[in-house]
Amino acid sequence: MKLFDLSGKTALVTGAASGLGQGIAIGLAEAGAHVVNVSLGSSADTVSKVEGLGRKSTEIIADLSNHDQLQSIFDEALQLTGQIDILVNNAGIIRRAPAKDHPEKDWFDVINLNLNTVFLLSQIAGHHMIERGSGKIINICSMLSYQGGINVPGYTASKHGVAGLTKAFANEWASLGLQINAIAPGYMSTDNTAQIRADENRKNSITDRIPAERWGTPEDLKGPAVFLASPAADYLNGHILCVDGGWMAR
Question: The whole model's pTM is what?
Answer without folding.
Answer: 0.96
